[in-house]
Amino acid sequence: MSASDLILDAGAPATRARVRVPATSANLGCGFDSLGMALTLYNEFLFEAAPQLSFEGCEARFANDHHLAYTTWRRTLRSLADESRGSAALCDPAKVHLSCASQVPLSGGLGSSSTCIVAGIVAAYAMAGVALAREELLERATRAEGHPDNVAPASLGGLTCSFIAPEGQVVSLENPVDKRWRFVALSPAYEVRTSEARRVLPPSVPLEDAVWCLGRCQGTIRALETGDGALLRAACTDRLHEPYRKTLIPDYEPLKELALRLGAAAFWISGSGSTMIAACLDEQTAADLCEAVRQLSPTVAAHILMADNQGVILCER
């Protein structure tokens, strides 16, 4: 195993681990359940040995032993202990303080659950003193999340195309994103539940719609890699999920029209929503769009982001 295959090296068991995980945008229009991209918006989690289980920095409804970052950390530690790897048994899951510094909105389509899952796994390995390979992180995170489209870019950074092979292993192809891109994340004040976003999808689609998205998926990847705005505008048009999910987002049509009129190359629903992404090729277009959104829809939060090409980081242990 080479150093480039590792998320973190083996080390001495630790009593703390601080992990930073980027937000992600999945689907990117036509890449339904396969494309994902890491963004420069972050959740940071600090796990520390403590006299008792306690939480800080999260909403009261999540400050308990059902917190997804905590349950993932606890489950991973137990798995490592069962496998007799490292010193996982030295970490008492009932005696930890979890501190959260969150920028990623909950249920907003920016991968908040994936940040919890990836952070919990990385922190468990770090505190147990066990080396963590990229492939292993992807496998564990995908099992926990159920699909890899968000956990892959959260783990690896950049733009990823991911799927689960027939044998069960997770395959993720990584692509760096051109630094000229600016991604304006437009987040309404309301949530769209993933379960509802799945419910509105049809059980089957016409063959022509599936063919429509296949070629455009590769075009979207190439455009984001190379900074080709004209190609992204041509390719980033979906027929599999956005025609149905946009009905759950009242702001979708007016914000899409505004973004494209002001010069955005493309516009898509991030994950299952409610956040939407406008892809712009320069800072000024992104800034003009943010100002226009504030005037048109004051309750919609607008953030100018870039692609995060690094992925999860262990800040300290």
Q: Any descriptors?
A:
alpha+beta, Ribosomal Protein S5, domain 2, Alpha-Beta Plaits, globular
What report would you give on this structure?
This protein is α+β, with helices and mostly antiparallel strands and 317 residues long. The protein folds into two domains: 6-176 and 308-316, Ribosomal Protein S5, domain 2 (2-Layer Sandwich), CATH 3.30.230.10; 182-305, GHMP kinase, C-terminal domain (Alpha-Beta Plaits), CATH 3.30.70.890. 35% of the residues lie in helices and 24% in strands. It contains ten helices and 13 strands. The strands form three sheets. Strands 2, 3, 4, 5, 7, 8 and 13 form a seven-stranded mixed beta sheet that branches. A four-stranded antiparallel beta sheet has the order 10-11-9-12. A two-stranded antiparallel sheet has the order 1-6. Helix 1 (68-82) packs parallel to helix 2 (112-128), helix 2 (112-128) crosses helix 3 (134-145) and helix 6 (207-226) runs antiparallel to helix 7 (229-235). The mean pLDDT is 92. Its main location: cytoplasm. Its EC number is 2.7.1.39. Catalyzes the ATP-dependent phosphorylation of L-homoserine to L-homoserine phosphate.
